[in-house]
Every structure is written in C-alpha cells, then in structure tokens.
Amino acid sequence: MNFAAEYNAPIEYYNRHTGAVETESVYGEGFLRWAYGNPLGRLTVAVAVKRLWFSKWYGWRMDFPRSREKVAPFIQNYGVDIEEFADAVGSYGSFNEFFYRRLKSAARPVDPDPQAVVFPADGRHLGIENVDVADRFYIKGQRFDLEAFVGDPSLAQEFAGGTMVISRLCPVDYHRYHFPVAGEAGPVQVLPGTLRSVSPLALRRHLSILWENRRARTVIQSPTFGKVIVMEVGATCVGGMHSTFTAGSVAKGSEKGYFSFGGSCVTTIYQRGAVQLEPDLLEQAALGREVYAKMGERSGAQISAHEASRRAIQLD
C-alpha cells in the first residue's frame, strides 16, 4: 500500500470484546478528510480550526440549554448504552453535560490484580513497547518525539526506552478518564499548544500534533511500577480538560478528570522495564492498529525478570 492509500484508508481497530477487526464510524469524517487531506482544508486548519478560540467557541455552544436537543439523536445514531448512565437521560441540561456524563460504578470494573495496569479511559488504544525505537504509529515511518511531548528534557530522559499507551477517545465514548495505577499523584502541569484533531486521519499526516497540541501532565509515583506519566491531550472542539482529583494518594481506576465536547486522548508512559503490555496490544500495534477496550480493563502487568533481561540485551 502506498502512502496516499494509507493516508486515506478507513480507520480499522481490533475490538477486544468481539475478537474482530472493525471499521470506525468517524464523527465528522467528511470534514476531517477535507481538513487534513485537502490543501484548502489544511489552510483552514492553520488559520482557524487549530486556534484555541475555535474550540472554546464550539464548546461554549455545547453548553447552551438548546444543545440538549442533540442528545437523543446522538444516542440513537451511535448506539450509546443508556443502562450504564448514572443519571437519567432527561436530567442533562446541555449536550456537554451528557457528553461528560458519569457512569454507574459497576459499568467499569477495575482489574483488581495489584500487578496489573489498566486503561485510563474508554477508547482505541495503541501500545508501544519501546518509544525510542518504534517507527510505526498511525502510519509506517513516523517517530515519536518524547522530549517535545512531555515538555521537560530531564523527565524525558528518565523515560528513555519506556513503554507507552495512547488511549484515543472518540466523541461516542465515555469521556471521563482515570488513573491507570495507584500511587502518589503530583499536581497537573498544563503545557500550552494548539488544538488539532487527534483522529488517525490527522495523525497519519502529522504525528507531531500530539506534542504540538495543548497537554496536561501528571507524574505518579507508584510503589509497584515506579514513576508513571499520565498526559491528557486536547483536540479540536474539546472545550476543556478538567481535572477532578486532588494531588496525593490515588487508587487505580479512581477518576482523574474529564473532557468537554470533542474527541481527545490520554497517554500513559511507563519507565523502561516497568511494564509488559498485553499481547493483543503488541500484536495489533505491529500492524499499526489500535485495540478497543474500556477503562479499568487490563492493559499490561509488572514485567517479569526474564522479560526485563531480554529487553536489556535487545536495547543495550
């Protein structure tokens, strides 16, 4: 497949629940393909769409009481399971209130194994075993700039050769995000940037969107997994990244915050030798494909001594 075909290919992901490769139904797909694949569209992104005011304006519209009219059609069109909702559908005063809705606690059980790490959010997850040597993200040949992404050279050095999971949320997903590990969480550090789409339709052309967009960084000190970075990444039409936790001791699976309207992503980075990702994440990542799974499900576990030795030999 040539680059043009890869850029324009449908977004496929592996669904852990069904065991099948599925095609994503992209919210606003026509606009995204035009915005990132057409010269005039790319100019529009540069001039307006990536600007903070555009997303704030759109998010502001989703706070209007009138926007609640969009809730019922959205639920019907995308098959959202209302049985999971903590509140009645009619209780939402705006589309945004529906968008960052809470769920019943039983709807997202958290893997209880103390040696396991979990996904911080619902969505499509891309697992990268070693961020320094991976050359396939959303299209072959792209490399990740860890230093630019975390915004701190010394911190990036601590995570050289580390393992990363990019958890991408679509507008149809549950939009609260949670801690993938237990430990002591530091304060949120906001890194300024633009707001462009984090859909693969955009990331196939510009992986740098992930470190050029606005980000929120939290460092967690885990007694089991060492230092862990969790970073939220803003995107077009995301009205905001809202932290709801207090710095200090946090439990695995406890709420960290929520996104206002729009798709976005949460990225978790583990230090080298800390975590072994689940086989389906690694198998699908080798194909440039994400894995669909829900918050609280197992994404990996504490690395074994054998695996740590294998990686040390391979990398050194």
UniProtKB/TrEMBL annotation:
Keyword terms, alphabetized: Decarboxylase, Lyase, Pyruvate, Zymogen
InterPro entries: PS_Dcarbxylase
Record's keyword annotation contains Lyase: yes
One Pfam family linked to the record: PS_Dcarbxylase
This protein's name: Phosphatidylserine decarboxylase
Source taxonomy: Bacteria, Pseudomonadati, Verrucomicrobiota, Opitutia, Puniceicoccales
